[in-house]
Amino acid sequence: MDRLSPQAQQEPRPSPKETFGLLALLGPRLKPHRRALGVAAVLLLVSTGIGLAFPLVVRRLLDAAFLAGDGTLLNLIALGLLGLFAVQAMVNFFQSYLIAATSEKVVADLRRDLFRTLVYQPPGFFDVRRVGELTSRISSDTGLIQGVLRFGIPELLRQGIFLVGALVLVTITHPHLTLVTLTAIPLAALIGWAFGRRVRKLTTAIQDLLAQAVARAEQVFTQIRTVQAFGRENWEEARFGAAVTKVRDEGLRRAVARAALTGAVTFAAFGAVVLVLWEGGRLVLAGALTPGTLVAFLLYAVFIAGAVTSLAGFWGNLQEAAGAARRIFELMSLPRAIADPPKPKPLPFPPRGEIRYRGVSFRYGPHLPWVLQDIHLHIREGEQVALVGTSGAGKSTLASLIPRFYDVTAGELLVDGLDVRAVALADLRSRIGVVPQEPMLFAGTIMENLAYGKPEASEAEIVEAAKAAHAHEFISALPAGYQQIVGERGVTLSAGQRQRVAIARVMLRRPAILILDEASSSLDAESEALVQDALERLMAERTTVVIAHRLSTVIRADRILVLDGGRIVDEGTHGELLGRNDVYRRLYQRQFEDALASARGNGGGSRVL
Fold this sequence. Notes:
By secondary structure, this protein is of the alpha/beta class. The protein has helices at residues 6-9, 16-30, 34-68, 71-119, 123-128, 131-173, 175-181, 184-222, 224-229, 233-285, 291-332, 395-400, 425-429, 446-450, 459-468, 472-477, 495-509, 525-539, 551-556, 574-580, 582-602; strands at 355-362, 372-379, 384-389, 410-415, 418-419, 432-435, 513-517, 543-547, 559-564, 567-572. The protein has two domains: 16-332, ABC transporter transmembrane region fold, CATH 1.20.1560; 355-431 and 511-602, Rossmann fold (3-Layer(aba) Sandwich). 65% of the residues lie in helices and 9% in strands.
């Protein structure tokens, strides 16, 4: 079973940050829409005022029309009410539209800001956070906030005005009955506070459990071939079902708390209405109150009871949104681990592609072991350098420091004479092309994938790059050609085809520095030859750092660096290292033997280092 996140392990506790976090989250995003919100507030006042006027009209109707027997007055009052409610309907329409439109815009801004925070996090952040959990924050948690913004806050204002207005009017009408009505408010407030805390805790637990379930489902869907290959469908179904059951159970507990909150507050509020009816009836029988005044008072008492009940429901919604705001704040408060300097320096133009490591050391955390230690290395313009070593020697990390996927822990890394931390990320990365070990394509067309690194490229440029990477031939043979949909992660293409598309994508960008993490998957002889030729074209006249897997790449490199234990223990050409370095000799002999065995098994095609 997956370990629960820290949020799910600990019982959520109310805090000032959580209580006021929702307002802090929404405040700056509501500010640009203050004009629309101001108009909506005025319309809300008009609509609520019409509602508050209704009992007064009923009082006049009963006392003047019925007691006086004036039929004409009855007709006029009825027509007046219809006109009044028609105006109220129009006012409600425009007020609801303004609030709905504003909520859509505000939540869209919130989702953009949250995505912006996440997309600039370094790759290491996503190595330890589940993607499904993060997407749940963008969709589910922001959805809770949108619900409060669109329905909760307008209802809070409406019912708040109803409550205050009705209390003022009933106090003017009959102070004694007002005291009877007010008996429900302290009790309802106490119930709302007690149950509201329970609802917030349960909602936080539900959202955390739901995020875990979504994260697991996303993992299964992205690894569906592995799941089905091992026949684990039933097991994954049971595992997801168990996660959903936990969400359901917590949801049922929250439903009980919400229902108890609503029921108890409703009983307290409308119990006060019964008391008003009883006491008011006694006053009518005694001749101290007219029937019309009693009915009007009862209507206001119902307004007060309804407002108290609605406010209790809103309190529950607010607690849910407060928990969601806390989780969003948790992400949005993350600093950019890799950020532009305050005053970035421009890299020299034209780019040379020179790379220099000066005493570079690196580790992934303050209490973790060193991955690289005291690296001194100068890679000249246009030089091809291969990195070899056992697994965990630091090859990939050494290359990942160049585009600042991570920052050095100590020392300096310079590109074209400037520390990479002193230049803008966009400027630095525009000069670097990366071909990963397992190229993953986006679930769009081949054309979109090829143009991803250079959206302004013309169709002719894209086709030229595809031809250079030996991708044009197979793309042209597809039913939709360059408009062919490749599926999630490019699964409709073969491994060799995906590699050639990835190579073409980098060719189109024409970087000065190339980082090549050669694919380790076995290819048929034809794909092997095409990919190798495409790689050689890509590396031509470029500074290239190769995390070497293929024997041909190692042999042809200008220099080979041997890494062991996070240090460069030797460097030289293939022939030099083979003759003097035991680590390199063992690596080469082992991979050479594997390559011969693979060649006998599949009729050619080298294995990888």
